[in-house]
Amino acid sequence: MDHRAEPAGHRRAADLSTVDELLGSIDDAADPAVAEALTRYFQVKPGGYGFGDQIIGLKLSTIRALLKPYLRADLPLSALEKALASPVHEHRLAILCLLADRASRASKPRTANPSELAAIYDLYLRNTEYVNNWDLVDCSAAEIVGGYLLDKPRTVLRELVVSPSLWERRIALVSTHRLIRAGESADIYALSALVLSDPEDLIHKASGWMLREAGKRVSEAELLAFLDNHAPAMPRTMLRYAIERLPAETRKYYLAKR
């Protein structure tokens, strides 16, 4: 792996830390009251999309604060991959945030590290079974998958978006956020056309969210053209998310097309 050298004395003490210490700090910060609220929020109940997950009670802001000493520690990817199989939701969330941060740095010109980015991408796609709630997808897919695909063919997105897995379909959609931020919107329009009849509200939300971002960041005219063709067939949630930033009269026009 092509690690970039840092000036002497600059590396943090956490360079010598372990993934176990990171997870231990998360366990120590667990809050039963927060856990009770999050259990409802992430539908951990029987029949919910998060059923079976173990919530110990940390908000994302708390996890990000705990991660700060570890962001440049270059913890071994093999250890991070092992930790990603933890039954604890917040453990997986922390690992994915950490991997996303490393992928983001590895994809930027000034800190480019193609071998690290490829290794994180491969790790991610062989462990999608553990990226199994919307917050886990949303904190990681854009930087890890989208960042890797910036200069590559996007065939994998078409494969993921027709997967039987709700979470792989959401990964495909949310991954386009990184592409959209780079000025590329073709992928989200192609993917969104493929999920018009998807049964899951979480897919409708992800598609509409990315369509809205494409209209805001790349071209409103392209978004309007997509809506002209597809608004009558779009699930109401997808359409509402997609048109959220458009003028009120335009929103009314497209809602009426349904």
Automatic annotation (TrEMBL):
SUPFAM superfamilies: ARM repeat. Pfam families: DNA_alkylation (PF08713). CDD domains: AlkD_like. This is DNA alkylation repair protein. It comes from Kribbella sancticallisti.
